[in-house]
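Moderator note: this is an archived Q&A kept for reference. The question asked for a predicted structure of one protein chain; the sequence and the answer are reproduced below.
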Amino acid sequence: MIVARANVGQPQVAEGHGISEKSSRTRAAILAAAEAEFVANGLSGTKMESIAKAARVNKALVYRHFERKELLFQRVLVNAYRRMREAEAVLTISADPMVALDQLCEFTLTYYRKNPGFLVLVGIANLHHGDNLRSVPRSELAIDKLMTLVGGIIARGEATGVFRKNLNPADLWISLSSQCWFSVATAYTVEVSFGKSILEDQEADRRLATIKEVIRRYVLA
């Protein structure tokens, strides 16, 4: 009898492990489908039924993993921020503060160009006054890591006398990011208005050179 019980118990452990893996795969599928739906339709225009259909699961499973649409959007948004912070974390930043600043400009503009959905998600969050992020711990957004990165560049620049004193990491990042953000977020209307398409590599290179110059002039002593 002892042997029989042991034999019965082993498959149960494996089954439980399998269920956990299946649950993780289901959650990942829901998040991927939800991100695509939110980017395409916004928060208000997205239906949980559409997410379930795109993820190839039933709607009950979507609600089991995420109680309501707003919580699902919050998780999608946090994941989008996390991916950008993770990409920044593996950058090989130069010890030269000016070169490092140029690298950060290039990375940011390139990231936004390659991930326009990120801009859409953050835009949606701003339409809702940022309420989707207010309950999220700061650590989940890895803002401190970003500020450490930018603050380190500032510290080196000030120490060498290249940067002016009292630069604020958040202010510098907002200035840098907004230059890149606007360039990508308004690409289509800028093309219609001025005949310049930042979606084309040659124009993107010209725009990047301008952004670097603007940010350099902002920090110079």
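Archived answer notes: The chain has two domains: 1-67, 78-221.
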